[in-house]
Design a protein that fits this description.
This protein has 204 residues and is of the alpha+beta class. It is 33% helix and 38% strand. A six-stranded mixed β-sheet has the order 2-1-6-5-4-3.
Length: 204
């Protein structure tokens, strides 16, 4: 097995561990998928991975239900750097105006990886939000959505943003979707990372 295949297998293992350990509340092992300066970007959180772990744990203790499911990966490796794109779904359950609801968002995890001291870990994770839907847990329930609030968010995470806002989160707008300026810029930043840019998220 050549080095490139081994690197891809190690990176894929990190991606899978992220989902398993985060969703299982295995916070100590979850720390290991990040480099110390790692950054997490999401609809409801943007900042250091260390703080993301803290607030995820706080939410877990309060009963916040956010789960992840993974699909295939495409991983580009350039020396000690890599970009991993992994198909995923984000599932969240919460109450919207008194009605229990599930939202499912399909997209990709777009991860900036680096190997340091022979350890591959995430430097930056930026999800790409492609399509979502919102359903009442009880199919007999009636839910009327606020069209003004719904229109605040891009199509890729419109219902996810709606549910999270109703649940008390502050949701960031303008995140990457299937097409558009934000995802084009992300691809440019990823290519620059593989070519030696000073930091992830830097288009140079």
């Amino acid at each position: 097995m050549d080095d490139a295949i081994q690197d891809r297998l190690r990176i894929r293992e990190v991606v899978e561990n992220w989902a398993i350990w985060r969703d299982a509340g295995d916070w100590e092992r979850f720390k290991s998928v990040w480099h110390p300066d790692g950054t997490m970007m999401a609809t409801w959180f943007q900042g250091p991975a260390e703080r993301f772990i803290e607030v995820s744990r706080e939410g877990w203790d309060k009963g916040v239900s956010i789960l992840h499911f993974l699909g295939g990966s495409s991983i580009d490796v350039a020396g000690t750097r890599a970009i991993a794109q992994t198909k995923m779904t984000i599932s969240q359950r919460a109450t919207v105006d008194g009605v229990g609801c599930d939202v499912v968002c399909t997209g990709r995890f777009y991860d900036f990886f680096e190997e340091r001291s022979e350890v591959w870990a995430i430097v930056l994770r930026q999800p790409i939000y492609e399509k979502d839907r919102l359903d009442a847990v009880d199919p007999a329930a009636t839910l009327a959505l606020d069209p003004v609030l719904l229109a605040r968010f891009p199509a890729g995470y419109r219902h996810l943003g709606y549910l999270q806002t109703k649940a008390g989160f502050t949701v960031k707008t303008g995140l990457p979707g299937l097409t558009g300026e934000a995802v084009t810029r992300l691809y440019e930043e990823g290519a620059a990372w593989l070519n030696g840019s000073p930091s992830p998220g830097d288009p140079r």
